[in-house]
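Researcher: Please translate sequence to structure tokens.
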Amino acid sequence: MKLSDVFGVGSSAIKSYVQRQEVDDAFKAALGEGKHIVVYGASKQGKTALVSRYLPYKDNVVVRLDPNSNLEDIYSSILRQSGIKIASGETSAKTSEIGSSLGVKAKALIPFFGSGEASLGANLKSSGTDTENWKEVPFNLSVAQDVVELLNDVSFDKKVILENFHYLIEEEQRKLAFALRSFEEMGVVFVILGVWREKDRLRNYCGDLTDRVVDVCVEPWSDPDFYRVAKVGAEKLNIFIAPSVVAECVKSSFGSIGVFQELIKESCASAGVLRAQVTQQVVDDIDFARKALGEKSVQYGVTHRKSLELIASGNVSHSKEKAIVPLHLPYYLVMALLGYGERLIHGLSRSDVTAMIKSKHHRPDDVRPSDMTNLLHKISALQYRKGINPPILDYDIGKRQIYAVDSTFFFFLKNCDLVEVSEEMVSPLETELCD
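Model: Translation complete:
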């Protein structure tokens, strides 16, 4: 067993997982209620680990989303993974009567097991074998009820797991929130994972989801939780990690299990523990933890400085009047957030961020409320386009607050010299002057 199998952050289940009664019991109870489940919290705080422990991904339908995904993409993926084929746009004259656009109307081919050609009705087609045929069913790919009826035709009994819900644009999030009522009424349950910090994200979009959705937050992690993680992992590796080493890692993690896992992993690596030991080894030098802290400070610092630079560069569209300098709001947003520093961890109001931006802006009177709406509502999509995954920022439209949502970003805000980061940020105004 390798060190990375036990400690650290990765795509596979980590063997130092510990149950937290409040969180694990809430999720297990929700699974038995027949309601949709929303699992939320900052990134690297254990959302996927929690869901996959009690709802194996290989046994259910998993759809991973991005800002280009829409409702039809989600439904198409669910149907395909359930063994239902969707006819292509090139259809016969008869099928053209119901439309051939995959975006709205389409035809589903549902597996039908019979005993050959004689068993086929007018709406059935042979697959060329003696055992499997396909039933044609016209349906509207944009309508939840049509999708559920198709799933019922194949006795669908799985959960639908939606990863990265935060990447959907606001319009698609809202549309899916409304559709979830139909799915719940017809017995199809969604488990939605999202990187945000506040409860009731979906109910803010659709009040009808009250009593139809259970929210499970994976935060906070307590100090005793961290100690249990270290103990379980140490037993797997046949090592003893001194309390002083664990305490140093806990103190430096700022409530992030992801950061803690990485610090413990690096501490063990510094002690020469790269896999399970034949004879027990002791990791008791606090310098191992301090070395890990230094390495992660550098690593996270480089990563998040680059992320902030990418956000600040934005997507500039120059005015037709060349004399007018663009607003460059993404740059000013970054400068405002660096000015607030650690307060970002607990959320900043839209009004505070707007005030800070205007105090620094080269055209403060031209920063309109609609400009701020466009900037903040699209912050997730901007990060995705820039390759910032997971995102470090999220805007809660209902509460009108912006949050830091990458747990390693908390570490960055606590440990880096934010004044220095601000001073080194390249101003787009200076770049234009150079051009």
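Researcher: Any highlights?
Model: The longest strand covers residues 105-113.
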